[in-house]
Amino acid sequence: MSPATHRMRVAALATLLVVYPAFAGASDRSDVLRARAERLADAGDCAAALPLAQRALDADPAEARAGRVAGRCLVELGRPAEAETVLLQTLERDPRLPGAQLQLAIARYHREDYAAARSALEAARATDAGGAEFELYDALLLLAEGERRAALDGLARAREASPTRVDPIASYYEGVGWASEGDRRKARAALERVVAADPDGPWGQQARAGLGEMRGGFRNDWWLEVTVGAERDDNVVLEGEDVIIPADIGDDDDERLVWDVTVGSELFRSDVWSGGAMLGYGGSAHRDLDEFDLHHPRATLWADRRIGESLTAHLQYDHSHVLVDDESFLVAHSATPALYYDWDSGGRSLLFTRLYWYDYRFPRRDTPPLDDLRNRDGHGIATGVEHRTPVESLSSRLRGGLTFDRYASRGGEYTHRRHSVHVASDTELPWELLLSLFGSWSYDPYSHSTTFPDPSAMGLLEGKTRRDRRFVFQADLERPLTEQLSASVSYRWIENDSNVDVFDYDRGILGAYLTFRVD
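The chain above was modelled as a monomer; its predicted structure follows.
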């Protein structure tokens, strides 16, 4: 080894002995400062933790973990824009640092940059999914994206992972979400958790306000829905099989303009009682068969009483008045007591009885004794059960039920029983489409022989005891145009299969509608 080479090696070793301790000391100081900052941040003292994290970064510019702590604390101190900058710098130092993408998503969420927050959260999914903070902000982003039911599931997962890390925030948004879904029992339980977790803080105060609205006082909650549309009806007059319609009726199919307006209000609500009122007016105007133009004003009153956490009693009164061709046709009253039971799965069961009275106002043109036998005025009672349940895997809500009905008319012609079953679904499709399907089948055995003649027997009485089997199918496809306006198309098929020709008919109705809603 030459003397020059020996001197170079000695100089390099001396430099290393001087410089390395300086770097090692910087790293040690950074580790100590960062560890102290993490402990303070975990204890909720970000005001004290942030300066220590910044000193750790100054001591070791290559430090990444201190940047993660600084970003977290900047968010908690209400400075999310600064947090985003620090966290982006941190990810440049260590792109794979656990938790850094999650903290970046949180910072962007609080800046209300939801698309960028979602991008960062998806980058964090592989390492942070299942953690309380990840599930919380995934749910909050789902709320911002309009996916309320999925968000409620996510909030529940966040609380299961670590309620102390995410409450009272998770429970508060659960309470708000369940209230919007109409599940007051779950909403109340969630808001009560918020009050317990943050009794004197801002979240607790907001939760108390929400509970107060649910428990008492007169309210100003109201809604308005207006629908206008056009329909094609291939059997306006309900022409029976092989039955010749009167000569003054030019046809049995027609187009019409239809409309319906409903306004309602929940007038009062307490922890036990609630109730309200609703007014409606529907009608139609035909192009040709204007003698079938319809006006239908109606009114509803209701009251609910909560019996237990899952059980609610309901009482409803309905009144309606139907006018045909500007002449009074039918006045109807009904009273419906019911019981609702809410299951933990989100389903609801309904048991009801309906009492109703019909007063037909149109003049009967039959000669005695047919005018008395064909008197439709009367009263009835219906009893039924229905169950409704969400099916999250299908993005659907399903319902189905059975009803038994008994109607006693003043004239024997229309006294009958009815046994019916129905099923229905509402399914969310791509492109914000909502598909609603409904189907029902009923069997109506009448109590007396019919007084209507057999058209094929030269006007002789049929002498049959009437039996009707009725099938109804309806499909509706709706899409929102704006937050309050939607468009829909509908098809309804009715088949009344009767052994009395006058009442044996089919009917198909195709319609298109615009609906405006305010609530």
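The chain is about 35% helix and 40% strand.
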